[in-house]
Amino acid sequence: MPAPVFTSTAYTATLRCLALLYIVLHCLTLPIPLPTLPIPAAHQPTAMSGQPAPLRQLAPILNDRPQPSLVVATPSCPAASPPSSPVLRRALALSPVLLPASVRPRRDSGTSFQLAPPLIRRLSGRSTQTPKLDAGGPVVSRRISTADLPANLTELPIVPDAIRQGTPMLRFTSRKRQQIIIGIDPQTAWIFWDQKPRFCVDNIQAIRIAADALVAKNLHDLYKVEAAAAERWLVIVYRTESNLKTLQLLAPTPEMAIAFHNTLDKLHNYRVEMMGGLGQTPTTFVLKHHWSTIETMDFDQIRKLCKKLHVNCSKSYLRDKFDQADVEKNGWLGFSQFQEFVRLMKKRDEIDELFSIYSTNGVLTFDSFKEFLAREQKCERSNSEVLRIFSKYQVKSPEGLTAETFLSYLLSNDNPVITNEYREEDMHRPLNEYFISSSHNTYLLGRQFASESSLEAYIRVLQRGCRCVEIDVWDGDNGPEVYHGRAFTSKLLFADVITTIGKYAFVVTPFPLILSLEVHCSLEQQLSMVNLLRMILRDSLVIGPSDPGLAFLPSPSDLKYKILVKVKASTPVKAESEPETLSSTTSTTESEFDCEIMISEQNSAKQKKGKIKTKIADALGELGVYTQACHYRNFGLPESKTVNHVFSFSEKSALNASKDTDGQLAKHNMKHLMRVYPGFLRLTSRNFEPHTFWNLGVQMVALNWQTYDLGLQMNEAMFAINGRHGYVLKSEILRPITPKQQGKEELGDNSKKARFVVQVLSAQQLPRPKGLKTVDPYVVVSLITTTETFKRRTESVENNGFSPVWRETLFFYYNYAIADLVFVRIEIFSNETLQNDVLIASYCAKVNALKHGYRHIPLYDMQGEQYLFSTLFLRFGK
């Protein structure tokens, strides 16, 4: 069903109601003086189903050799109190297994798990009754932690009394400040204030203290807080079921701020290792120290333990493993039998079968390993490279790899899912020849209306490789402010936004960042913007062309560590001959900001009246050196031929322009820049599918990064290649015509045919979605081209989210024109009879980037965070 179109009358009435509500709430919120928080003595800081088909029968479909299965992992987490089951209180001497690549940070760190920089959190699975019943959710990775994850966190961290009982702090929001008593319950891992549990430690995305908060230096401007309070500032970013939120606190002392931060960090790390207890973790069994008070565990105790560790499988499955371990048929397990039980739970038949094909007497030799790489993985490596990998995992036997170390290889970064090698030679073409990872409404954490603006939003997209961020600037009492105009969102200081950008612009990639400015403020505050940009960004800011005589844009390599400004020019275009160099380019003065929300898009005559025109100061307009915003009128006019102009279209306008101009839009994008953004009628910040506009050569396809839907998943898949630098060289067919290209098919001519095969083998430790008692998983694979989408699915596996096995092969036959624009989306659902099937996890990749053979793909939740211990084992082929 198409999105509804708001009429001017209906929307105006709605807007007035919202405005009245906002004014009433604002007037009721009076500023209060900053109190001196008393610190009671008790609050002083202290130290701190049927058998599957044999694997061999399915193998010939893809090749003449079969396939394996994957690592064990652990999802959802309930209350984090140490298990009371005494069987868990003794060492379980299982050999450590390397952590799978899928649980590593999205941005490869090149280090071991213990040294990896990403953060780790859990998706909320809060019960509708009491938090103690379901305190957390499946373990997923986050990107922002700066602390190393210690190995062998075997004891519940000590939470200082002041924090456990609650300590007084000031809480700041965009409308008020209030004194609260905030603390942490170490047993449930819930943060509470005013005696109410608010969110789980697992939901935390980032914790920032004074040095990282970035707003600390502007506390006086933002909240009228004295500068000396900066070292007591604490910002906690956490996720709800729908979006991100920030909790901004002022602790009574700097020591308390640090203690609170450290307590959260230690508790989080403990829970991560706890949840890896029955999985393939980098340490021995994490609960080994708990085996101390009793000598045995019966089946009911084992079942309760597995439920606590979120081993989502049927009672009969557990009973089968229990009975196999209970060889003496005592009805209970001692320590050695419990070790065997865990080994049986970790056992993967697919791995054993594959290993047996290439191994001899339980050992995989160097020659056999090399054969496996060539035949199964389609990976041609030199002897020295194969030897390097082989030696890395040859730790159990001098003769070769064991089944255990072979599994370690299959789960490692040495067996990646996609091709992600950085090619320096691909970064020397002009900017217009690249797709550029771009964000729309970057400052928002949620939907377009009544949402929260946050510096965290800029930090997150920059840490994920975004290279074009949007900044809407309006007049403010204390200088220019950033927010979504007329949409009742909270506000940020422009100075804070630029400071944040300056700090995080190049933490992931050295290639240029583009600031897309939407300017709605006065000339006076525009000059303030210029001063802030120059003062904060300093040498990073591009203020003039390197060569005024250039007839084409510089390359990403030419602009390393540089920040470009996309802004309107201050003078109109001269309707004379076509300017061909940077020194002669100009632009129109009309703003690209169209008030589509105030009028129907179908009424073009009235729409012109709804546009907001802002005069741009000369000093600001001059910063649009290589990216000068230009109002589109016609592809044949002089402004469409200037080297540095950028046309900006809403999605609907871009599609209309493409149809009305008979392919001129795509030809324009071969030599010049364009930005396309979601229309205003996407009130919930949903995204379109970006490959529609990549197919037209649009470089900056801006998306709502706060919404992890198919559009954003495709965007992440596109920019996951080439080292995740945010720039991807377009296919030759989308770049300037050369003699070499003559005779190639026209754009949009889907003349090539291809086959894609996915063998769905098994999954490990799938999370149990909130509200479901069992998990009955099935897999849906979608192949997405620019013209069609094909879907295939597997059968459901009843009541087994821990180790479901499918061994089904899905075939796709399709036509395409541009290989870079064919995507595969893999989703796991739970089959439900009394409600709609529930999405558990997903993954998206470019088909031509996928490696062949056996791969363990990472799985992501509905907010785009990776499950730490959940994976899907597949085999890809053609």
Automatic annotation (TrEMBL):
It catalyses: a 1,2-diacyl-sn-glycero-3-phospho-(1D-myo-inositol-4,5-bisphosphate) + H2O = 1D-myo-inositol 1,4,5-trisphosphate + a 1,2-diacyl-sn-glycerol + H(+). Its cofactor is Ca(2+). One of its GO terms (molecular function) is phosphatidylinositol-4,5-bisphosphate phospholipase C activity. This is Phosphoinositide phospholipase C. Pfam families: C2, EF-hand_like, PI-PLC-X, PI-PLC-Y. Residues 736-861 form the C2 domain. Residues 313-348 form the EF-hand domain. The production of the second messenger molecules diacylglycerol (DAG) and inositol 1,4,5-trisphosphate (IP3) is mediated by activated phosphatidylinositol-specific phospholipase C enzymes. Keywords: Hydrolase, Lipid degradation, Lipid metabolism, Transducer. Residues 620-735 form the PI-PLC Y-box domain. SUPFAM superfamilies: C2 domain (Calcium/lipid-binding domain, CaLB), EF-hand, PLC-like phosphodiesterases.
